Amino acid sequence: MAKSNKPGDLPAGAAAVATNRVARRDYTILDSLEVGIQLHGSEVKSLRESRVQLAESYAIIYRRELWLVGLHISAYSHSAAAYAHEPDRRRKLLAHRREIDRWASRLEREKLALVPLALYFVGGRAKLKLALARGRTQADRRQDIARRDADREAQREMTRSHRRRSAT
Q: Residue 77 — φ and ψ, nearest 5°?
């Protein structure tokens, strides 16, 4: 996938593997957290080749543990079939217990979703930016588009007026 242009998606010095740009369109991001992810050796090598699909994945809390479901990591190109990993298996996410408990209570109270935003490497370790998000309706998306268009038009007018003043 394309690299993210949002400054909050990746920490400084991180090498992006994949981003979930659709998540920002379909969800309102309320909170985010950087978590580790348990991977097999061939999965790490596949991630370094950016052979991953992040868009259809989501996270769940099961027995007070975070799990990532629907992340597809293709087989490593140079591994034997006998040592290949399962591409669509559930992967355990590594976070502090207090963070998991805090998010679990918010998920129950507010009917929210756990959405992955970006997958990247920091210091040689694979990290996932996970967001606590609320789903957007079609009307919300339309309002965002209208607001963005109005801001763009206002910026154009300011630029035009500034040019007219400086030309005289």
A: -65, -30
Q: Around Cβ 67, how many Cβ atoms within 10 Å?
A: 16
- For the residues 139-151, what does the mean pLDDT come to? 85
Alpha helices in the chain (DSSP H): 21-26, 41-48, 97-110, 138-167
Average pLDDT, the chain: 85
Cβ proximity of 120 and 12 under 8 Å: no
DSSP helix/strand/coil, 151: helix
Q: Give CA–CA dist 25/33, Å, rounded.
A: 19
Q: State what percent of residues in the chain have pLDDT above 70.
A: 89
Over the stretch 34-80, which tens digit does the pLDDT of each residue have?
Answer: 999 998 888 888 888 888 888 889 999 999 999 999 998 888 776 65
Whether 153 and 113 share a structural domain: no
Other beta carbons within 10 Å of 4: 19
The DSSP 8-state label assigned to residue 84 in this structure reads: P
- Residue 8 clears pLDDT 90, i.e. is over it: no
Whether residue 8 is contained in a domain is answered as no
Overall domain count for the chain = 2
What phi and psi, each to the nearest 5 degrees, are found at residue 63? Answer: 55, 45
Q: Which structural domain range is residue 63 located in?
A: 15-136
